[in-house]
Design brief:
By secondary structure, the protein is an alpha/beta fold. The protein has one domain: Metallo-beta-lactamase, Chain A (4-Layer Sandwich), CATH 3.60.15.10. It is built from 3 helices and 6 strands, in the order ββαβαβαββ. Strands 1-2-3-4-6-5 form a 6-stranded mixed β-sheet, with no helix packed on it. Helix 1 links the parallel strand 2 and strand 3. The two termini are 24 Å apart.
Length: 125
């Protein structure tokens, strides 16, 4: 937050973590869609954290195309301060299951990853 001199207003920032055998991607600051080279560099992401506000990031339609292309097993929407969450969810059709977390804590492991892409809406979102 503090280094505003190196901040690129229309840049892309993606954070990737490898934890307990899981590859977790955080699409924290995405302003434009990714290229084929970007997708190749990112590789497989088991869990994908996706901003859906469309405010400081690209809009829901562009973000949904990125999510579809990455095809992560578990997608966690975040940063909902703008358009309704339902607007984002309707862009995925029947290819992505949608579930709502019943607990504020989400525990993920290689054993409990969904077999098909699933959007899991955190409790309270």
């Amino acid at each position: 937050w503090g280094d505003y001199e190196s901040f690129q207003e229309n840049g892309n920032s993606i954070f990737i973590f490898e934890v307990a055998g899981l590859c977790i991607g955080h699409l924290g600051h995405l302003h434009h869609e990714l290229t084929d080279t970007h997708y190749a560099e990112i590789g497989r992401l088991d869990v994908l954290m996706v901003p859906v506000d469309g405010g400081l990031t690209m809009g829901a339609d562009s973000m949904s195309r990125v999510v579809k292309r990455l095809r992560s097993a578990l997608i966690l929407p975040m940063h909902r301060t703008g358009p309704p969450l339902q607007q984002f969810l309707t862009m995925f059709g029947e290819n992505f299951a949608i579930a709502y977390a019943s607990d504020p804590v989400i525990r993920v492991s290689m054993r409990n990853l969904p077999r098909q892409p699933q959007i899991l809406v955190p409790k309270g979102m």
